[in-house]
Amino acid sequence: MDDSKGGSSRAVHISSEQVQRFCEFLYRRTGMSFAESKRYFIDRRLEDRIAATGSSSFQEYFSLLRTDADQEIEHLINSFTVNETYFYREEHQLRCMTASLLDDIVSRREPGATLRIWSIPCSTGEEPYSIALWLMENWPQVDNYNIEIVGSDIDTRALRAAAEGIYGDRALMRLSRDIIGRYFTSVTGGNHQIDEGLRNSIEFTQANLIDTKDMMQYRDFDLIFCRNVLIYFDDASRRLAAENLYDCLRPGGYICLGHSESMSRISPLFRVSRFPDAIVYQRPEADHG
Fold first, then answer.
1. Which of 23, 78, 83, 94 lies 20 to 30 A from 172 at CA?
2. Active-site hit among 49, 116, 153, 250
3. What's the CA gap between 172 and 12, in Å, rounded?
4. Is 155 noted as a catalytic residue in this protein?
Protein backbone atom coordinates (compact mmCIF):
# COMPACT_ATOMS: atom_id res chain seq x y z
CA MET A 1 0.00 0.00 0.00
CA ASP A 2 1.49 3.32 -1.04
CA ASP A 3 1.84 6.38 1.18
CA SER A 4 -0.29 8.36 -1.25
CA LYS A 5 -3.32 6.23 -0.43
CA GLY A 6 -3.45 7.46 3.13
CA GLY A 7 -4.77 10.69 4.53
CA SER A 8 -3.03 12.89 7.02
CA SER A 9 -1.74 11.38 10.25
CA ARG A 10 -4.29 11.30 13.07
CA ALA A 11 -3.94 10.60 16.75
CA VAL A 12 -4.36 6.89 17.57
CA HIS A 13 -3.83 5.67 21.10
CA ILE A 14 -0.96 3.20 21.26
CA SER A 15 -0.28 1.63 24.65
CA SER A 16 3.18 0.89 26.04
CA GLU A 17 2.45 -2.84 25.70
CA GLN A 18 1.58 -2.39 22.02
CA VAL A 19 4.74 -0.36 21.41
CA GLN A 20 6.80 -3.11 23.02
CA ARG A 21 5.10 -5.75 20.86
CA PHE A 22 5.70 -3.66 17.76
CA CYS A 23 9.38 -3.05 18.64
CA GLU A 24 9.92 -6.79 19.06
CA PHE A 25 8.36 -7.35 15.63
CA LEU A 26 10.55 -4.66 14.01
CA TYR A 27 13.63 -6.03 15.75
CA ARG A 28 13.07 -9.55 14.44
CA ARG A 29 12.67 -8.20 10.91
CA THR A 30 15.48 -5.66 10.78
CA GLY A 31 17.71 -5.89 13.86
CA MET A 32 16.86 -2.27 14.65
CA SER A 33 16.35 -1.85 18.38
CA PHE A 34 14.31 1.05 19.78
CA ALA A 35 13.96 1.80 23.49
CA GLU A 36 11.19 3.59 25.39
CA SER A 37 13.28 6.77 25.13
CA LYS A 38 12.48 6.77 21.38
CA ARG A 39 8.74 6.64 22.03
CA TYR A 40 8.01 9.93 20.23
CA PHE A 41 9.92 8.75 17.13
CA ILE A 42 8.09 5.41 17.17
CA ASP A 43 4.64 6.87 17.76
CA ARG A 44 4.94 9.41 14.93
CA ARG A 45 5.92 6.80 12.38
CA LEU A 46 3.35 4.29 13.54
CA GLU A 47 0.61 6.91 13.45
CA ASP A 48 1.62 7.88 9.91
CA ARG A 49 1.49 4.27 8.71
CA ILE A 50 -1.82 3.60 10.49
CA ALA A 51 -3.30 6.62 8.71
CA ALA A 52 -1.71 5.73 5.35
CA THR A 53 -3.24 2.23 5.42
CA GLY A 54 -6.64 3.42 6.59
CA SER A 55 -6.42 1.28 9.73
CA SER A 56 -8.68 2.34 12.60
CA SER A 57 -6.43 1.15 15.44
CA PHE A 58 -2.99 -0.16 16.25
CA GLN A 59 -4.38 -3.69 16.52
CA GLU A 60 -5.89 -3.51 13.03
CA TYR A 61 -2.62 -2.16 11.63
CA PHE A 62 -0.56 -4.78 13.44
CA SER A 63 -2.74 -7.53 11.94
CA LEU A 64 -2.06 -6.00 8.52
CA LEU A 65 1.66 -6.07 9.23
CA ARG A 66 1.67 -9.71 10.28
CA THR A 67 0.01 -10.77 7.02
CA ASP A 68 2.22 -8.30 5.08
CA ALA A 69 -0.84 -7.17 3.13
CA ASP A 70 0.09 -4.80 0.27
CA GLN A 71 3.77 -5.21 1.25
CA GLU A 72 3.17 -2.96 4.23
CA ILE A 73 6.31 -4.22 5.97
CA GLU A 74 8.43 -2.64 3.24
CA HIS A 75 6.67 0.72 3.72
CA LEU A 76 7.07 0.43 7.48
CA ILE A 77 10.81 -0.31 7.28
CA ASN A 78 11.25 2.58 4.86
CA SER A 79 9.61 4.92 7.36
CA PHE A 80 11.91 3.82 10.22
CA THR A 81 15.25 4.07 8.42
CA VAL A 82 17.38 7.19 8.62
CA ASN A 83 18.93 8.37 5.36
CA GLU A 84 20.66 11.56 6.42
CA THR A 85 24.07 11.74 4.74
CA TYR A 86 26.12 13.73 2.24
CA PHE A 87 28.97 13.35 -0.26
CA TYR A 88 32.49 12.80 1.06
CA ARG A 89 31.23 12.10 4.60
CA GLU A 90 34.08 10.88 6.82
CA GLU A 91 36.55 11.83 4.11
CA HIS A 92 39.49 10.41 6.07
CA GLN A 93 38.26 6.89 5.23
CA LEU A 94 38.15 7.74 1.53
CA ARG A 95 41.75 9.01 1.82
CA CYS A 96 42.66 5.77 3.58
CA MET A 97 41.05 3.79 0.75
CA THR A 98 43.25 5.31 -1.98
CA ALA A 99 46.38 5.96 0.12
CA SER A 100 46.59 2.54 1.78
CA LEU A 101 43.81 -0.05 1.42
CA LEU A 102 43.57 -0.47 -2.34
CA ASP A 103 47.34 -0.48 -2.82
CA ASP A 104 47.57 -3.32 -0.30
CA ILE A 105 44.75 -5.23 -1.99
CA VAL A 106 46.14 -4.88 -5.53
CA SER A 107 49.60 -5.94 -4.34
CA ARG A 108 48.06 -9.44 -4.37
CA ARG A 109 46.38 -9.05 -7.77
CA GLU A 110 47.35 -8.76 -11.40
CA PRO A 111 46.48 -5.61 -13.41
CA GLY A 112 43.08 -6.05 -14.99
CA ALA A 113 41.69 -7.95 -12.00
CA THR A 114 38.26 -7.14 -10.60
CA LEU A 115 38.03 -5.18 -7.33
CA ARG A 116 34.68 -5.30 -5.55
CA ILE A 117 33.57 -2.50 -3.19
CA TRP A 118 30.32 -2.60 -1.23
CA SER A 119 28.51 0.32 0.34
CA ILE A 120 25.90 -0.89 2.85
CA PRO A 121 23.76 0.89 3.81
CA CYS A 122 24.05 3.12 0.75
CA SER A 123 21.24 5.47 1.79
CA THR A 124 20.12 7.62 -1.15
CA GLY A 125 23.36 7.05 -3.07
CA GLU A 126 25.72 9.63 -1.60
CA GLU A 127 27.94 6.90 -0.13
CA PRO A 128 28.67 4.74 -3.23
CA TYR A 129 28.81 7.77 -5.55
CA SER A 130 31.37 9.33 -3.18
CA ILE A 131 33.50 6.19 -3.48
CA ALA A 132 33.33 6.33 -7.28
CA LEU A 133 34.12 10.06 -7.45
CA TRP A 134 36.98 9.75 -4.99
CA LEU A 135 38.52 6.86 -6.92
CA MET A 136 38.40 8.75 -10.21
CA GLU A 137 39.88 11.87 -8.66
CA ASN A 138 42.49 10.36 -6.35
CA TRP A 139 43.62 6.86 -7.33
CA PRO A 140 46.10 6.80 -10.26
CA GLN A 141 45.55 3.06 -10.76
CA VAL A 142 41.80 3.39 -11.26
CA ASP A 143 42.01 2.50 -14.97
CA ASN A 144 44.22 -0.54 -14.37
CA TYR A 145 41.48 -2.56 -12.66
CA ASN A 146 37.87 -3.51 -13.24
CA ILE A 147 36.16 -1.86 -10.28
CA GLU A 148 32.67 -3.00 -9.30
CA ILE A 149 30.74 -0.89 -6.79
CA VAL A 150 27.53 -2.20 -5.23
CA GLY A 151 25.24 -0.01 -3.12
CA SER A 152 22.73 -1.81 -0.89
CA ASP A 153 20.13 -0.70 1.62
CA ILE A 154 17.10 -2.17 3.37
CA ASP A 155 15.05 0.92 2.40
CA THR A 156 13.58 0.51 -1.09
CA ARG A 157 12.55 4.16 -1.19
CA ALA A 158 16.17 5.20 -0.62
CA LEU A 159 17.34 2.81 -3.36
CA ARG A 160 14.99 4.38 -5.88
CA ALA A 161 16.33 7.83 -4.98
CA ALA A 162 19.91 6.53 -5.27
CA ALA A 163 19.30 5.23 -8.77
CA GLU A 164 17.85 8.61 -9.74
CA GLY A 165 20.86 10.44 -8.27
CA ILE A 166 19.36 13.91 -7.70
CA TYR A 167 20.73 15.98 -4.79
CA GLY A 168 20.31 19.34 -3.18
CA ASP A 169 22.99 21.76 -1.99
CA ARG A 170 23.30 20.22 1.48
CA ALA A 171 24.25 16.79 0.08
CA LEU A 172 26.91 18.40 -2.13
CA MET A 173 28.31 20.84 0.46
CA ARG A 174 31.66 18.99 0.75
CA LEU A 175 32.27 18.82 -3.01
CA SER A 176 34.24 21.50 -4.86
CA ARG A 177 32.56 23.60 -7.56
CA ASP A 178 34.91 21.96 -10.04
CA ILE A 179 33.72 18.43 -9.18
CA ILE A 180 30.07 19.48 -9.21
CA GLY A 181 30.59 21.10 -12.60
CA ARG A 182 32.26 18.03 -14.08
CA TYR A 183 30.04 15.27 -12.67
CA PHE A 184 26.60 16.85 -12.12
CA THR A 185 23.93 18.49 -14.25
CA SER A 186 21.55 21.15 -12.97
CA VAL A 187 17.92 20.02 -12.86
CA THR A 188 14.68 21.60 -11.74
CA GLY A 189 14.28 22.94 -8.23
CA GLY A 190 17.90 24.03 -7.93
CA ASN A 191 19.04 20.41 -7.59
CA HIS A 192 21.82 18.53 -9.33
CA GLN A 193 21.76 15.08 -10.96
CA ILE A 194 24.90 12.99 -11.02
CA ASP A 195 26.36 11.97 -14.37
CA GLU A 196 24.49 9.17 -16.16
CA GLY A 197 27.66 7.15 -16.59
CA LEU A 198 28.22 7.12 -12.84
CA ARG A 199 24.58 6.24 -12.16
CA ASN A 200 24.89 3.27 -14.50
CA SER A 201 28.22 2.16 -13.07
CA ILE A 202 26.80 1.30 -9.65
CA GLU A 203 24.49 -1.64 -8.95
CA PHE A 204 21.84 -0.87 -6.34
CA THR A 205 20.25 -3.78 -4.44
CA GLN A 206 18.14 -4.36 -1.35
CA ALA A 207 19.90 -6.17 1.50
CA ASN A 208 19.20 -6.87 5.17
CA LEU A 209 22.35 -7.11 7.30
CA ILE A 210 20.84 -9.55 9.82
CA ASP A 211 19.23 -11.85 7.25
CA THR A 212 21.94 -14.48 6.83
CA LYS A 213 20.17 -16.18 3.92
CA ASP A 214 19.82 -12.83 2.14
CA MET A 215 23.46 -11.95 2.81
CA MET A 216 24.71 -15.21 1.29
CA GLN A 217 24.22 -13.76 -2.19
CA TYR A 218 26.91 -11.16 -1.44
CA ARG A 219 30.43 -12.54 -1.56
CA ASP A 220 34.02 -11.73 -2.52
CA PHE A 221 34.11 -8.05 -1.64
CA ASP A 222 37.56 -6.52 -1.22
CA LEU A 223 36.32 -3.51 0.69
CA ILE A 224 33.08 -2.81 2.56
CA PHE A 225 31.88 0.55 3.82
CA CYS A 226 29.29 -0.16 6.52
CA ARG A 227 28.94 3.10 8.34
CA ASN A 228 26.56 4.42 10.97
CA VAL A 229 24.07 1.55 10.94
CA LEU A 230 25.30 -0.85 13.64
CA ILE A 231 24.56 1.84 16.22
CA TYR A 232 20.86 1.10 15.65
CA PHE A 233 21.30 -2.59 16.53
CA ASP A 234 21.50 -4.30 19.90
CA ASP A 235 24.48 -6.52 20.80
CA ALA A 236 22.99 -9.74 19.39
CA SER A 237 22.10 -8.14 16.04
CA ARG A 238 25.52 -6.44 15.84
CA ARG A 239 27.27 -9.78 16.27
CA LEU A 240 25.07 -11.42 13.63
CA ALA A 241 25.63 -8.53 11.20
CA ALA A 242 29.41 -8.72 11.82
CA GLU A 243 29.46 -12.46 11.10
CA ASN A 244 27.49 -11.92 7.89
CA LEU A 245 29.79 -9.10 6.79
CA TYR A 246 32.83 -11.24 7.53
CA ASP A 247 31.55 -13.92 5.16
CA CYS A 248 31.00 -11.27 2.46
CA LEU A 249 34.68 -10.23 2.50
CA ARG A 250 37.53 -11.91 0.68
CA PRO A 251 40.38 -13.01 2.99
CA GLY A 252 42.55 -9.91 3.41
CA GLY A 253 39.60 -7.61 2.66
CA TYR A 254 38.78 -4.56 4.78
CA ILE A 255 35.69 -3.09 6.37
CA CYS A 256 35.22 0.58 7.34
CA LEU A 257 32.71 1.46 10.09
CA GLY A 258 31.34 4.80 11.26
CA HIS A 259 33.48 6.97 13.56
CA SER A 260 31.51 5.98 16.67
CA GLU A 261 31.52 2.25 15.88
CA SER A 262 34.19 -0.30 16.78
CA MET A 263 34.32 -3.86 15.47
CA SER A 264 36.61 -4.74 18.38
CA ARG A 265 33.64 -4.39 20.72
CA ILE A 266 31.39 -6.49 18.47
CA SER A 267 33.31 -9.47 17.10
CA PRO A 268 36.76 -11.11 17.50
CA LEU A 269 36.72 -12.24 13.85
CA PHE A 270 38.41 -9.12 12.46
CA ARG A 271 41.92 -7.79 12.92
CA VAL A 272 42.34 -4.10 13.75
CA SER A 273 44.40 -2.32 11.07
CA ARG A 274 45.75 1.15 11.82
CA PHE A 275 46.66 3.39 8.88
CA PRO A 276 47.71 7.08 8.88
CA ASP A 277 44.24 8.22 7.84
CA ALA A 278 41.93 5.75 9.61
CA ILE A 279 41.46 2.68 11.75
CA VAL A 280 39.75 -0.09 9.78
CA TYR A 281 39.12 -3.82 10.27
CA GLN A 282 40.48 -6.68 8.19
CA ARG A 283 39.45 -10.26 7.58
CA PRO A 284 42.74 -12.12 8.18
CA GLU A 285 44.38 -13.04 4.91
CA ALA A 286 45.16 -16.57 6.08
CA ASP A 287 41.48 -17.28 6.77
CA HIS A 288 39.92 -18.84 3.70
CA GLY A 289 36.75 -19.90 5.48
1. 78
2. 153
3. 39
4. no
